[in-house]
Amino acid sequence: xxxxCLRVNAGAFLGRCKIFPSFTIGVLEDAVTVTAVRxxxxxxxxxxxxxxVKLLRGADCYLQRGLKFPSCGIFHSYAELLHACLxxxxxxxxxxxxxxxxxxIGKRLYTPDxxxxxxxxxYVFELKPRGxxxxxxxxxxxxxxxxxxxxxxxxxxxxFYAREIEATNYxxxxxxxxxxxxxxxxxxxxELHARFVIAETIPLNQITEQAECGNLSRIEIALFRxxxxxxxxxxxxxxxxxxxxxxxx
Amino acid sequence: MSSGWGAVLSEHPELRDFSQWPxxxxxxxxxxxxxxxxxxxxxVSLVLxxxxxxxxxxxxxxxxxxxxxxxxRSLCETDGERPLTKGLIPNQRLRPDHRRQPLPTLTNPRGSxxxxxxxxxxxxxxxxxxDEVIASFLxxxxxxxxxxxxxxxxxxxxxxxDTKHPADAYPFTERKLGYESxxxxxxxRCAEMLLERPVPKRIIRSVTSxxxxxxxxxIDAYTTDIITRxxxxxNGQLTPLRLARATLLLATExxxxxxxxxxxxxxxxxxxxDILRLFSRMFTPAPLPVLKTPGIEYGTNAGFPTSLPNPVxxxxxxxxxxxxxLAHLAHSIQHYLCDVLGATYNLGLxxxxxxxxxxxxxxxxxxxxxxxxxxxxxxxxHDPVRESRTNHKKPPAxxxxxxxxxxxxxxxxxxxxxxxxxxxxSPLGFLQAKxxxxxxxxxxELEHHQLNPLLRRQRVTVRWIRKEKRTPHINFYKVRYxxxxxxxxxxxxxxxxxxxxxxxxxxxxxxxxxxxxxxxxKAPLSWQAHAHSLTTRxxxxxxxxxxxxxxxxxxxxxxSYLLAKKESPKYAMEIGxxxxxFVSENAPSTEQSIAAHPRVLDQSTSLPVIPDWQTLVQTRxx
Lengths: 249, 622
Known about the structure:
- The complex is a heterodimer.
- Chain A is an alpha+beta fold.
- Chain A has helices at residues 10-14, 53-58, 78-89, 135-147, 157-161, 164-179, 186-198, 204-209, 216-228, and strands at residues 7-8, 23-25, 37-41, 62-65, 72-75, 93-98, 103-105, 108-110, 114-118, 121-128, 150-156, 201-203, 233-234, 246-248.
- In chain A, strand 9 (114-118) and strand 10 form a beta hairpin.
- Helix content of chain B is 34%, strand content 13%.
- Chain B is built from 19 helices and 13 strands.
- Chain B has a six-stranded antiparallel β-sheet. In chain B, strands 5-4-1-6-7 form a five-stranded mixed β-sheet, sandwiched between helices. Chain B has a two-stranded antiparallel sheet with strand order 2-3.
- Strand 4 (62-65) of chain A pairs antiparallel with strand 7 (344-346) of chain B.
């Protein structure tokens, strides 16, 4: 039985060219042969890759500006949009980038769906129906990204469809905050937070009723900013956001 | 070698329970087979409860060999499968038919049963080549042909000839050369190939239905089927022109089915500016337009959300659904929807009109009214709504203004008509009721240039060519703009921001990079005659590369050029678009300036003068 050991070409490549090292996995045995999968990346700086016009017109693309991704994100499916909305509302996520890298795997180009920074750790996700993804690619990408201190994972679209109501609520709130990105509400946030320290839960209509006429939108913006930063909570998983939605600490 | 039925029953005692056997409904069998089938069932039931084959045969009035044969056929395996109840059906084929005899020839005629199957199995590569031809057809490959059973049969015969199949053997012994067998094979393989791969179900849109208004707004374009005319009125002379078909842009809120606004585009394809005009109409409060065509009226409670007594301002729509037309990919639209309105922008799948079924149904509803007029659906030359040949030579009866009035009245009346599915509320009423109950996103206070989609800002550089001894200027779409605002040494060769309205670019407002307003700059006098849009300016310059426009100014020259080609509906449409720009609200008295240039008017194509009516009728004898 012949066997070739795991081979890493990092040192040989780094000196000659500016591309990141390729990673080759090859194990040869008499009984079983696993095809070698080589992964290359031009850059591992997460920047949203341009979507070709053909894909933009051919896939069911959604464009939405974000806060944690401060640009217009292009999402290639509805599931990716829902995922992005949940990331925006997750206080442990500090940043995310859709379509962050472009890898060359063998002869084909591959772009993962999302790069996420959560609690100081970097993750790269691929969203697929039923979480089905080529196992050989999964292995290759896991190994390659692990070498660069990133975790690779495949997420099922169905997991986000199940949380669609919650994600859609967060989308509404995200859109409020996107249009209010130039409005300062520090004072209103402090006042609101102080109110919640006294009262356990306050419904939305009670918060907005007590606001002055010209200050209504600022109170709302401040409330949603506290929600997204994790200082306040609300049950948005079962019903659409309404005047009766209760917020609590 | 198959074991006997007795051994099978010994090895598989569970088969003794006849209720566990697959059920066959006797009513599905032909009547002549039904009696024997029921007899066979009775025979098997008697054997299964413990009777011997002889006793059971006697009870059902069968010979013992026949009974044994039936039991053997039902209980013993055939090609790895135990027929059970299926084996009890008289004359039921349990194994696929297989030809044992050689194929018939002209000198040795035989039956041709299963001959086709024999050919497919024995002739090398025949089945693969036939399947390849069918696959090319079904997958619409460039090398595929449009197959019919006849053409497929010819291909079959050609392939046989290629394999040097004897010319005196089947299928050449048959009158139809095996056409029926080939036809059945063709249809069977087409069905099998189409159903081979299951199409994975893909979730495209939301899995839950929305309960809130302004969650989804669908926008689409539709080329109206009506041919219209415009009448150019210069110095009291009326010139009718047949127009090309206009395009209607429509925006509808999906939950309430309420039309938010529309825009009639006088261009073959809507541009990004047309779509921005639609957005402007959707969000700008304005009273219901006055209908100018006699006979067209609004229905009860007709209106648009922007024409309500207390129109709701600055509503934030959650998602806009458009199709993937090229104009929709423009940065200006993406910027307005995503950056200014903060909404989600969805382009949808190509060739998937059902993805925006609400708006498509709106067009269908509109067509019911529009097809009352002579028009065309573009389907075929015998289209029943098509205008006749005689009428085609004359200008159409309905004017562009009339078409606009019809569309306005139809859409506004629909908004005010109660619908059963909305709880007998009209779309407008439903929208207002839902809006009062639900939480709706609103836009914060935005500056006017941000909220108006037709106002754009652009960075330009101030130039000053000293040796020309002119004032500093800016180049804006190939024209030099000058004004007091630029007369400052600080601005020379520096960038400033200019703001302009896409429908009237005669004047620009200048701002410092810090946002301070500097003043206005104007285009040269030759461009000041009429209000014109960016589109018109670009078209004039594009035309200038090939044609020299004659006129006192470029705009009049362009208009004269269009008038010279007014017989063409395409150019007539452009005349209508440009004329509307010229006589917009911002323009000075345009009619006077146009009338001052006799080339604009074409006397020869005015309407013929109708002679005085004569009561005497001339007869042939006279």
